Amino acid sequence: MTKKNIELQKKNLNKLKNIIERYGGDTNVTDTKGTAVWLKKVGYSSLADLIFHDSKKN
Amino acid sequence: MTVKKTKLPCLEHILKIDSLTLHFEYIDNLLLRKNIAIIFQYLLFLVALDENHSLPGAISYLIYKDMIIQTASIAEAMLCYVLAKGIDKKKTSLEIMDIHDEDKYKNFIELYEINSKEIVGGVIKTVKLIDPQHMQFKQLIRAAIHSKIIDSTLETELTTIRKTRNKIHLSTLDVVDNSYNKTTVIKTFDTVKKLKTSIISYLH
A35: domain range? Predict the structure, then answer.
């Protein structure tokens, strides 16, 4: 990736952050395991796997 | 008058974007990584909305539809990313992908006239290869097959997602379809999980 592309990415990431802030900010949930367990409980194991499954650890 | 907004109880399991972002480190484009995390956060919200509330049927149906559309957009973005990465790593090329615009013809030279409406002649045919960023979902799937990123089973499954996603065009629907339910959504997640596994193994 060129230096110009990295700069552009940084600029866009900041823009995105500002937009999220403007619309009310983010959640404060960081309990990944809790979310994975909840997804499995409500029948969405496939979504839990899609998000959290780390293929490199297979 | 300002209306005070309240936090929905169903937000309880909706992970912070930064926490979700950590799970997509195999994508080194930070903007794409964050955009994918944002869509996953939204998907978690849709699951919570559907699971925690008794909603009118049409709304539930549209929640499933939205989940498929959003998941399809992740699959599309992942395919585009892995193809571009494959070119960077010299594992594939535009020639291998072999996705091109409609053939164009130039420099028509008339040889002879059959009649006033038909002429026999010669032309130069030009083929312009398309780069992944300008490919449509269908072309990305074909390019991934040609580049040996996915196999034919995954190709079929991704095509099903693409076709289901394309039903967003209401005017083209002449039957009431039953494409959007929890089972279809779960199948869609399964397919994209397989795609994720294929991408990770291709890139490493």
Answer: 3-57
Residues 1-58 of A with CB under 8 A from B: 1, 9, 12-13, 16, 20, 24, 26-32, 34-35, 38-39, 42-44, 46-47, 49-56
Show residues of chain B in contact with A9, CB under 8 Å: 29-31
| Residue B8 touches partner A, C-beta closer than 8 Å | no
Domain annotation covers residue B73: yes
Assigned domain for B5 exists = no
- Exposure pattern of B29-66 as b/e (b: 16+ CB <10 Å)? bbbbbbbbbbbbbebbbbbbbbbeeeeeeeebeebbbb
Tell me the ipTM for this assembly: 0.86
Q: pLDDT tens, A31-50?
A: 999 999 999 999 999 999 99
Helix (H/G/I), strand (E/B), else coil: B181: coil
Query: Best residue in A50, A53, A55, A58 to probe B by mutation, most B CBs within 10 Å?
Result: A50
Number of domains in chain A: 1
Q: pLDDT digit string (tens) for B178-197?
A: 678 899 999 999 999 999 99
Residue B119 lies in a domain: no
Range of the domain at B147: 10-92+134-166+180-203
Taking an 8 Å cut-off on Cβ atoms, the answer to whether B197 and A29 are in contact is: no
How far is the C-alpha of A32 from the C-alpha of B15, rounded, in Å?
Answer: 7
Instruction: Tell me the pTM.
Output: 0.86
